[in-house]
Design goal:
This protein is mainly alpha-helical. The chain is 78% helix and 0% strand. It has 7 helices and no strands. Helix 2 (15-42) runs antiparallel to helix 5. The chain is elongated and about 50 Å long.
């Protein structure tokens, strides 16, 4: 018996965007893993010119600029993240983690924002996504509080 479930055509129309954002999150986590592995292998912080670190900084900035954050709690997190990166008072690896958590949370926020309003409160549509978003937000908040 086939598993034919109805999928709202508005979600189907956005599938390419969802896939792109999920892939971006996956790539971001790969860069963060590479930074963590280098720190573990060398027992030293990464250099500012580290390609994975630079990519994380770019990903965060681009994702922040594309995300609909005005008037949201996320805007405050972005302001704090920008200030922390600018201050440069902690290890680059810490900022790499911060950017990875922020980028992942922002990507999940962007996906949620693409879901039509009338579907966002339907558990079968958004519960897993909301849970992942909240996990990333908690990680982002934890890193921010740890460096403040």
């Amino acid at each position: 018996m086939p598993n034919d479930r109805f999928v709202d055509p508005r979600l189907q129309a956005r599938e390419a965007i969802f896939q792109k954002l999920h892939l971006s999150t996956f790539e971001t986590m790969g860069y963060a893993r590479a930074v963590a592995q280098e720190v573990e292998q060398t027992s030293n912080d990464i250099e500012t010119n580290n390609s994975d670190y630079q990519q994380l900084l770019r990903d965060y900035q681009v994702t922040k600029n594309l995300a609909p954050i005005d008037g949201s709690q996320i805007a405050q997190f972005c302001t704090q993240t920008d200030a922390a990166i600018k201050a440069a008072t902690h290890a680059n690896a810490t900022y790499a983690q911060l950017c990875a958590a922020g980028t992942s949370a922002l990507n999940h926020w962007r996906i949620l924002s693409e879901i039509p309003l009338d579907l966002r409160d339907k558990e079968e549509v958004t519960s897993a996504l909301k849970e992942k978003f909240q996990q990333q937000m908690r990680t982002w908040e934890y890193i921010l509080s740890d460096i403040s």
